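Bug report (template v2)

What were you trying to do?
Predict the complex of my protein with S-adenosylmethionine.

What happened?
Run completed; filing so the output is reviewed.

Input:
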Amino acid sequence: MLYESVRVNEITQGLPDIFLLNEASFMKSFEKSYYIYDLLYSDKDYKNECELIDKLIKDYKPQSKKILDYGCGTGKHAFILAQNGYDIVGLDISAEMLSMARKRCEDSPNVLFESYGWLSNADKIDVCIAMFDVISYLNSNREINEFFLKIKHILNPGGLIIFDFWHGPSVCYLNPENRWKHHKSGDIEIIRLTQPVHNRTECNVTVKHDVLVIENNKVVDKFIEYHSMRYFFKKEMDIILDYHGFKILELGTINDYKKSPTEKDWSAFICAKVI
Ligand SMILES: C[S@@+](CC[C@H](N)C(=O)[O-])C[C@H]1O[C@@H](n2cnc3c(N)ncnc32)[C@H](O)[C@@H]1O
């Protein structure tokens, strides 16, 4: 905690007083930001992503019925895919994100949200999706291996795994930098300062978010969150997927899954199947 305080003071030097937070304000990942997540990413095109998922399923595993949405967040993919007729199980490590997802899908009878332990005794699934950086939250080799091992175990023969991840060549080439995000929606305003620390040895970026939530011109919340993001290279993904018994069908970008990701594409996208 002392370490954290020192870093905050270092980093916030020169910032407006409003950004000076006390120790109690520290939170991990989505523990604090879950309730503004949908606002922050309101420009993300979930509908389009679900169309892509649907297309890949129709191309590569057309009889699919049951989808696991791993790292489902607030349940946006789950909601849309359920409307398209799939049965969805949503899992997330964050109880707060899951509570948002449950609320979104409360009238969707073919969506279930489960706690993390569900994976150990799960029924078979046809497809697993892990969209929007979920794999990059699995920082250690142990977490990555456990994930693919468990998913392989519960996928039906020929089942698919569809996911994106931070793309190593791009993260190293573009190098993460400090950023501001200002979002306004109705009476709510969010100001987010992002400060990354790039650890090239570990292929990891620790992203620190200082967040202010303002309602009717008054600060109603302020907090800090850390997101520890791992990036991967194509050769690494080849080895991981091959080792766990998957064949890569498509490796591209979310906007064009047929185009090889370049050093300008921060995120890469994979569709693979059980062999
Ligand atoms: C950027 S959000 C993406 C959420 C959702 N898939 C979407 O597209 O909006 C990343 C999600 O991964 C979840 N997550 C992080 N680590 C995880 C883990 N080890 N197991 C399951 N979910 C995890 C987070 O809680 C968060 O909801």
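What did the reviewer find?
The chain has two domains: 5-41+170-230, 46-166+232-274. The chain has a mean pLDDT of 90.
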